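Lay summary

Proteins are chains of building blocks that fold into shapes. Our project writes down both the chain and a compact code for its shape. Here are two examples, one after the other.
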Amino acid sequence: MKLIDLRNELKRVYNQHGKDGADIDFIVSELLGVSRTELPLIKEITSRQGKEIRHYAKKRMNSEIPIDKLFKKSYFYGLEFFVDKNVLSPRQDSEILVDTAIKFIKKNQYKNVLDLCTGSGCLAIAIKKNCDIDMTASDLSKPALKIAKANAKRNSTDIKFILSDLFDKIESGFDLIVSNPPYIARDEIKTLSREVKDYDPLLALDGGVDGLDFYRRIAIYAIDHLTDRGAVILEIGYNQRQDIISIFKDYELLQVVPDLNGIDRVLVFKRSRR
């Protein structure tokens, strides 16, 4: 069986049903154990491989389960992560936070970093892989921390994990605090796609009535856990910039970083000199 013919056939079917044809290449590469860039080099596959590819393609097409939850595998910042219903699937937009954090760590020679609401551990692990730092990561969810620990081991990173509701069990003395906290307004969750609201944990989505609860708590308590030259880097929702800047009025705004669509995605604050 010619692989290119099968890929094109399945992509046509996906497009006819309003599905993303790019999922086919993800499915094929995962099942064949090759990267997507290597797919054009594979000319023939066995009938058994073709049957398996069709099975997963049909399973994905006939359900709303996200492709990474289907394979329990996600890729973020060039690294591989295990994901399931207990953690938020890593988003490409979050790589902007990692880029920003790495630049600040290296520029300021930061040594101690804390990742709040770590989930799968993708932020902490990606930052740690690229910086010589002591990394601590925390989460309120025991299942999420178990997955984060497994992902740290999978990616050969030494990270201290703490079960904590934000700062409750956290000691002080961090040069940098990063976080991608829950920031969806409670009433908006029901309007999200089924791929998100049915397969990502509510705990990782619900940011309170207006989506800003976690930012308020971080703003209050982060200052007691930062070194004198410490900073906070946060991922935010598409329309939350001004509200969060107001919440962090006792901090100095250093940078606003947009995503690839030009939407403000990351805010950087430092301890105010006032």
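And here is the second example, written the same way.
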Amino acid sequence: MKVAVFSTKPYDRQFLETANDAVQDCCHQLSFFEARLDVATAPLAAGFPVVCVFVNDNLDAPTLKILAEQGTRLIALRCTGFNNVDRQAVRDLGLKVVRVTAYSPYSVAEFALGMILSLNRKIHRAYNRTREGNFALDGLLGFDLHGRTIGVIGTGKIGLIFANLMTAFGCQVLGYDPYPNPEFTKNPLCRYVPLAELFAQADVISLHCPLSPETRYIINAQAIEKMKPGVILINTSRGALIDTGAVIVGLKSQTIGALGLDVYEQEAELFFEDLSNEIIQDDTFERLLTFPNVLVTGHQAFFTEDALGDIAATTIANITNFATNQPLTNQVS
């Protein structure tokens, strides 16, 4: 099966080729493109029955129409989220879409914890200070996580692991999820509460929910008004869960005491590229970087060898199932 793989970096090629080589009797022909998939680059996939894409590829109706007219029949997402896919266009065009329903959930949960520790204890600032010979402690004061209240929005695989990590620190964990996970409340330090109560009581809030119409801007001006002053806010899920303008206002008012972002709503034009010699034109993003209590990373929470191995193996298995007319167990409905 010929597969056009978009938005590829050297590590994508390494892990996908390894997973592909492990498939017996059905090794696929992988063609790698560095370009991000959109309406302008879709012609590169001409003649490929399978197109493999990542989180910032644009699968809107015009792009999907070009792919379908060129002979593409399967879209293989090498990610969990599918908010970048026009699902109605997929149905209208008779395409199939598969995704990676799960990969190492520890990768993202542990990264979120790392962001909390860095922001609370100012580790990222201390690192830069000591490199300049500044060993003063003023401005680096943090607090013990032990005994604090942690809010987790979304208690699926990643949110559950994150909650258990926080209880190991001696924290109380408040959860919010429209679809409660019975495993969450098995931990005596975890309980579900209404969202407003979570906002009011949590010293730290971490987002682990998918992006949907219901969760878009779940962190907005009204939500921030309900939060405890000085709250630490972490987002390792999807950028549009947060209204960035409202968060900037919250930082200026000091309602938000620290902000950790591994995702950003307009990240498609920024993340996964080296722009160190460029002038970034996104004024909102640049404003975020001016705050000393903001830590931004470039969508790397998933980036462990364990997670990349899982993603590649599931992606190749999805394509193999399609090529051999097996059930598509990871199909996006």
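What can we say about the second shape? The chain has two domains: 2-103+304-323, 105-296.
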